[in-house]
Structure formats: C-alpha cells, structure tokens
Amino acid sequence: MNEGAPGPTSLTDPIPPFARPLVDQITAARVYVGWDLTPGEWLRLDAMVKRSGVDMLAEHAVTIAARREVSSARYFLRAWTNLPPAPTVGTVAAAPVARGNVIPLDRAQPRGRAAQSADYLAEALAAMEAQQ
Fold first, then answer.
1. Which residues are CB-neighbours of 101 under 8 A, at least 6 positions away?
2. Domain residue spans in the chain?
3. How far is residue 125's CA from residue 56's CA, in Å, rounded to a whole number?
4. Which residues are bridge partners to 72 per DSSP?
5. What does DSSP assign to residue 132?
6. How far apart, in whole angstroms, are the C-alpha atoms of residue 31 and residue 14?
C-alpha cells in the first residue's frame, strides 16, 4: 500500500481510521456488512466521506439496507457515488413537504357516495355507542 494512502492500518483492525465513524454508525443501526474493500475502493470511500460526510453516507446506507439485503459495503459505494456534497455549515433545511398519495378533501365540494356511506356508518356507530 502507498505511504499515506487510506487503508487498513493493521491486521487486527482492517478498517482505516477515517472510515471507523462510518462503519460504527452503520453497524450501530444493525446493518452488518463486510468491509473487505480494495485499496482503490478505500481511496474512493475517503473522497466520498470528505465530500458528503459520514452522517449522509450512513443514513443512505441504512435506508438502502432497509429495502434489500446487502452483504458487502462495496454495494454502498455505487449508491454513494451520486450523493450531493454535504451542505455548508449553517445552511437551514427546507421545510418538509407532505408526502404520500393522500389528497386533502375540500369540504366545500360535494362528497361522493363512498364518503357519504362512511359518514352514515360513523353516525350510526356513534348513536349505538351512545345508547349503550
């Protein structure tokens, strides 16, 4: 290995020091993958950590692992390649946008038959509970 190149520092800990916080965050999230990367891959990972930051890489890895089984950190390298740089310190996050496929109903519009049936059923159940 080249002098000063990121890579394993010993046989007892094959994870280079720059990658230890990333490996620890991913492992703490109960994502267990092999970290048997080549020296060139460790170099790429070092550049990704410097560009995007440990937190972004770890969060993305945990999201990926929640969707599919991953056995090697090598799989994450492809996914991390297209992540953006970490935001500048002091950047304020954008307000979250409501997600999902639920569209709020405008109560001024007439309701459909299914919604009316649900309303009638809810009223009937409320009346039954009031009688008990």
1. none
2. 15-86
3. 49
4. 34
5. -
6. 18
Residues linked to residue 34 through DSSP beta bridges, in sequence order: 72
Which residue in this structure is represented by tokens 């009316």? 116
Would you state the structure tokens that stand for residue 117, as one six-digit string?
Answer: 């049936």
User: What is residue 84's three-state secondary structure?
Assistant: coil
Task: Give the relative orientation of helices 54-67 and 39-52 as an angle to the nearest 10 degrees.
Answer: 110
Q: DSSP class of residue 18?
A: G
Residue 111 Cα distances to 105, 126, 127, angstroms? 9, 20, 22
* Per-residue confidence in pLDDT tens, the chain, 132 aa: 444 445 555 556 789 999 999 999 999 999 999 999 999 999 999 999 999 999 999 999 999 999 999 999 999 999 999 999 998 888 888 887 766 666 665 666 666 778 778 888 888 888 888 887
Whether the Cβ atoms of residue 20 and residue 28 lie closer than 8 Å to each other:
no
Q: Residue 8: what residue type?
A: P
For 1-132, strand residue ranges (E) read none
Q: For residues 29 and 54, is the Cβ–Cβ distance under 8 A? A: no
